[in-house]
Sequence to fold (91 residues):
Amino acid sequence: AWVVRGAGDPLPWIEKYGKRIVAVHVKDIAKPGEGVDEDGWSDVGHGTIDWAGLIKALRAKSAAKYYVMEQDNPNDIERFARRSIAAARTY
Fold:
């Protein structure tokens, strides 16, 4: 999400540095008008980041073993964890 927030595309990073990637910082950006009370962040899989596509690329091009999900300001941490883990299990 930080690459996207910086107006970048994560796929070229995965292509270029994939063999060096062992851990992934998993965040999602809220859709326009959502997540206002959570500083513009979203539960993983419920925002604007194509995590299904990114996970597919990471599995194909990287050595990633660890995926650390984070949300800077969830108003319900249990909801964030439950929904994010459920979404990640579908990838």
Q: What stands out?
A: The two ends are 17 Å apart (CA to CA).
